[in-house]
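Meet our chain:
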Amino acid sequence: MEDNRELIQSKDGGPSSYQPPLLKLTRLQWWIMVAINIFFLTVGQAAAVLLGRFYYAQGGNSKWMATLVQTAAFPILIIPYLFVSPSENNSDSTTRPSVLLISLIYFAIGAMVAGDNMLYSTGLLYLSASTYSLICASQLAFNAIFSFFINKQKFTVLIFNSVVILTLSSALLGLNDDSDAPQGVSSTKYFIGIITSLSASALYSLILSLMQLTFEKVLKKETFSVVLEMQIFTSIVATCVAIIGLFASGEWNTLHGEMNIFASGKVSYVMTLVWTAVSWQICAVGVVGLIYLVTSLFSNVISTLSLAVTPIASLIVFHDSTNGVKIIAMLMAFWGFVSYVYQNYLDDRRVRRNRDRGNDSRNDDLI
């Protein structure tokens, strides 16, 4: 059976000089690991979005608290970090960048993550979970644009098709009436929810591109430990920013009253926040795992697929109202997703073909 190590390549398309111990698996074992991480990402993200909407629906109203729980459970990521083999950390002889430079990068990205989480929290406050998720699926279109300008990735016909379809999908929801808006949300707030959700999607895609640029140009490696460190340290910064925002805004004064009026009770209030935080970190484990096992682009694609599937779960859990416009928007989101995935399938085939040709050429030289 083909060894999974053949799937791991360096940035220039050639075989990587370092093979992480975790990836010394058979092809079947590798696919099982990928499937497990896809499960973590999709289930964690869907659960986090639904619990976030539940928090608001039951009487929660603190946007800073909703922002805080998105990163507050980051210590969960320390668990897989403890299992990283010491040899991986010493696998690259490249001189590490200065601590000051890395600290500045982590701080900047962490602050951006906090701002992004705040935008997401605002969008979820004013939109139903299904509409929110469909709009956030536009992050794939933003990712294609930022990857083109920042990461120098090609902008093909299929990618352009995906960008157009996902943009039209979001525009349809923006033009849709606010009949599915949460109770008490005005048309103005509904529009604000759409704008903040789109802004959050754009900022998230920018963060992903900047992270990829950091891996390639500054850290110059993308091992499991490095990816985890990026996630952990940026989450620490984002959590600190959210805590400062919670106290500076005065929202912390309202938390006790919020707990008392929470429709399903005080225990439910606490457990909702706890499991929302845990769900986001389960999602983060899946994200990190897919970045390590496959690529950051693939991880973002699966994240977008989860956002496209979440509306279905929302219709079941919250009985969100639906209409023809929302159904068309959902189908368009899937169409855009499939176009993007197919382009990456073609890219992967080309990389494998070039790799095989390179291997054949080296074998001919040895004969």
In short: Residues 1-23 have pLDDT under 50 and may be disordered. DSSP finds 14 helices and no strands in the chain.
